[in-house]
Recover the amino acids of this structure.
């Protein structure tokens, strides 16, 4: 558990050290720096001087049956179980049912509170796997031959009460019909259907991200230090080798710009009745089997979602425009930078977005619309060009993004201004509130 912990600390404290653990020749100087700033660290990813790693065990189990839309799910505590005093989560009553537990179980409308026995116990319930979006298409499905879902579908976000200084040592166990296999964002352990979960940034781990189980086909590869798995049900028309080729020429550039990319990437796909789009999750994404890798207008939903995964962090409230704008702008720029799109085609794609977003007078909405994202792309493209022309050594938006990551900030307007100011070594007039539609007046974003 030491390596993930150190990796989390390095990623937090300086962008120059992000790739240290991938470069053996830098390990010795890195160790010296870490010893100076971090006497010890725990699996929470938070500096804790002199603190040993103390863990209790949590086992998540999901049982799937062919043709059954219901998953039988359980959460079990074993070793040092007394350290987990309480677990709570909210649930959708239309999907979750039949809660049972050892110890004390309280269900208040749509919230579960479980206090397990001191020597360990089990909370079990049932989950309807298929789930429709508002437009009627599915973003989770279970059939006779496969099941596709997110870890959050089975194990919602949870709050815990734990003995101070203790962290979970968690794993996911899948119980599947004979002949089924599975792909998850986690590497399998000793058993191919057991997946250890270790997120050094969290004290309590649970399964998240996209997962696929059933009679499936998988293609695997190692690209730019990222272990890639591309999976889809048999006979669903997913062009796995096309996707792998696409990643071979785009993923290295994504990792270069966003070194926060996880060391494992899982891509799952399926055809109808799944939603005909793409959705990203931690270390993973879903993409409909019929979606093109590159659209006729020169954009790429696939690369857009991939960049969301690489970014890793969400935006602050009302800064979704920046998250979506960065993902869309870089999806176009990386295609052009790798020679996949010509410069002329990139210019046409940006011009189309400029026209689409020209009437937007406020970027700062809780959720970015297509028009707001288009306006954000225009702003970021202009900022990139201005930085290349004016910043020291011609540093562009790449340098600003890397500075934002190094500062440990969320993707928001203030962080963008601070990072651009540091790269520019002075004010950036085009980020002044008067130049950014709907922007609040912040001293960090002033032109003076």
């Amino acid at each position: 558990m030491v390596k993930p912990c150190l990796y989390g600390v390095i990623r937090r404290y300086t962008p120059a050290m992000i790739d240290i653990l991938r470069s053996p020749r830098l390990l010795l100087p890195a160790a010296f720096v870490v010893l100076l700033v971090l006497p010890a660290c725990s699996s929470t990813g938070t500096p804790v001087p002199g603190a040993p790693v103390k863990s209790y065990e949590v086992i998540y189990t999901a049982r799937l049956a062919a043709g059954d839309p219901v998953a039988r799910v359980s959460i079990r505590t074993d070793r040092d179980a007394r350290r987990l005093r309480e677990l709570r989560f909210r649930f959708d009553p239309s999907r979750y049912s039949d809660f049972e537990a050892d110890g004390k179980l309280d269900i208040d409308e749509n919230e579960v509170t479980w206090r397990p026995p001191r020597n360990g116990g089990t909370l079990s319930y049932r989950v309807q796997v298929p789930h429709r979006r508002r437009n009627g298409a599915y973003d989770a499905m279970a059939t006779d031959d496969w099941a596709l879902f997110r870890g959050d579908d089975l194990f919602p976000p949870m709050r815990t009460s734990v003995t101070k200084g203790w962290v979970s040592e968690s794993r996911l166990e899948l119980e599947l019909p004979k002949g089924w296999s599975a792909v998850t964002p986690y590497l399998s352990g000793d058993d191919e259907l057991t997946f250890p979960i270790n997120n050094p940034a969290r004290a309590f781990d649970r399964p998240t991200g996209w997962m696929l189980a059933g009679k499936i086909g998988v293609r695997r590869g190692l690209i730019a230090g990222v272990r890639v798995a591309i999976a889809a049900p048999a006979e669903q028309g997913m062009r796995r080798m096309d996707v792998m080729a696409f990643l071979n020429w785009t993923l290295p550039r994504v990792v270069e710009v966003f070194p926060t990319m996880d060391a494992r990437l899982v891509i799952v796909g399926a055809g109808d009745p799944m939603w005909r789009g793409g959705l990203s999750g931690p270390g993973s994404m879903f993409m409909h089997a019929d979606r093109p890798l590159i659209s006729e207008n020169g954009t790429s939903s696939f690369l857009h979602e991939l960049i969301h995964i690489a970014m890793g962090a969400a935006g602050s409230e009302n800064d979704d425009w920046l998250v979506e704008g960065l993902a869309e702008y870089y999806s176009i720029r990386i295609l052009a930078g790798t020679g996949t799109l010509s410069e002329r085609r990139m210019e046409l794609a940006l011009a189309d977005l400029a026209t689409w977003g020209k009437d937007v007078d406020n970027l700062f909405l809780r959720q970015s619309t297509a028009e707001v994202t288009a306006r954000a792309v225009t702003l970021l493209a202009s900022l990139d060009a201005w930085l290349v022309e004016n910043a020291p050594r011609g540093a562009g938006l790449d340098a600003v993004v890397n500075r934002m990551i190094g500062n440990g900030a969320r993707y928001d307007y203030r962080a963008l201004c601070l990072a651009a100011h540091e790269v520019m070594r002075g004010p950036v007039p085009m980020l002044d509130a008067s130049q950014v539609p709907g922007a609040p007046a912040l001293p960090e974003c002033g032109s003076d």
About this structure: The first strand starts at residue 54 and ends at 63.
